[in-house]
């Protein structure tokens, strides 16, 4: 009901004049978008793999009570919010370092994942879990706007498909979590699971150097040039042209 009141559906003819977005399969093969999607999936693997396995490990290794198991992830909420806030402030001051914030977040996630098996009580295990959630906040908050920028400069400024790719990246991690993590713990052990996740994040962090020059990209044939050369043809073009004249 709120959506109907605040964002009523477009008139039947209005949607025909809206720009057509780049097909999702073309966005998926864009190397820059693929790097970001890989980072989003990799950084969420520790969270997705620990959620179904850490409860049993805490009960077996440190004799954790039910209330401790139930509250394991609650403290991590606060560093996650802090990570979002810090990244937003840093991105506003130094927008050309978005890739670095993502790489730093992945390094923090990797180090924190490796520390989890060394914990011996509830108070200790909370610390690396907070580190994991803080790192995920850095990666997500830095790289999701990068996806929008990549679509602006390399494709058409319609964002539904590219954020669908981001959701697919999360979904891959969380779909594999209960299946793969349990099997790895059963065959190799909880320690090896965490070391593998940590190593994957640390090794992926340098890959984000590929995004270093993204902020310097310029659209090859921007929407502004198209409108100035061809003039308004539909509702969307007319609105954009009027905004620029204003």
UniProtKB/TrEMBL annotation:
Keyword Transmembrane: yes
UniProt-annotated location(s): Membrane
Principal location: membrane
Signal peptide span: 1-16
Coiled-coil portions: none
One GO MF term attached to the UniProt entry: acetylcholine transmembrane transporter activity
Gene Ontology terms: cellular component: AP-1 adaptor complex; AP-2 adaptor complex; terminal bouton
Keyword list, A-Z: Glycoprotein, Membrane, Neurotransmitter transport, Signal, Transmembrane, Transmembrane helix, Transport
Segments passing through the bilayer: 32-50, 71-92, 98-118, 125-150, 162-181, 193-211
Gene3D superfamilies per UniProt: MFS general substrate transporter like domains
Database matches in InterPro entries: MFS_trans_sf, MFS_Vesicular_Transporter
GO biological process per UniProt: chemical synaptic transmission
Bilayer topology annotation: Multi-pass membrane protein
Protein name: VACHA protein
């Amino acid at each position: 009901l709120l959506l109907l009141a605040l964002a009523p559906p477009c008139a039947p003819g209005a949607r025909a004049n809206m720009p057509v977005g780049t097909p999702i399969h073309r966005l998926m093969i864009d190397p820059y978008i693929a790097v970001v999607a890989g980072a989003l999936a990799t950084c969420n693997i520790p969270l997705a793999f620990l959620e179904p396995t850490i409860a049993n490990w805490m009960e077996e290794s440190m004799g954790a009570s039910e209330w401790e198991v139930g509250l394991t992830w609650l403290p991590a909420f606060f560093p996650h919010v802090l990570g979002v806030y810090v990244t937003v402030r840093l991105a506003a001051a130094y927008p050309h370092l978005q890739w670095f914030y993502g790489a730093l977040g992945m390094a923090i996630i990797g180090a924190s994942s490796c520390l989890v098996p060394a914990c011996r009580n509830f108070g200790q295990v909370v610390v690396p879990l907070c580190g994991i959630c803080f790192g995920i906040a850095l990666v997500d908050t830095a790289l999701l706007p990068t996806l929008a920028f990549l679509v602006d400069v390399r494709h058409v400024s319609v964002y539904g498909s590219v954020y669908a790719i981001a959701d697919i990246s999360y979904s891959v991690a969380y779909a594999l979590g209960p299946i793969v993590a349990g099997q790895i713990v059963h065959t190799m052990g909880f320690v090896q699971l965490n070391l593998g996740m940590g190593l994957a994040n640390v090794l992926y962090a340098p890959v984000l150097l590929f995004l270093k020059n993204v902020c310097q990209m310029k659209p090859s044939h921007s929407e502004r040039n198209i409108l100035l050369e061809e003039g308004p043809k539909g509702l969307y073009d007319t609105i954009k042209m009027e905004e620029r004249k204003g």
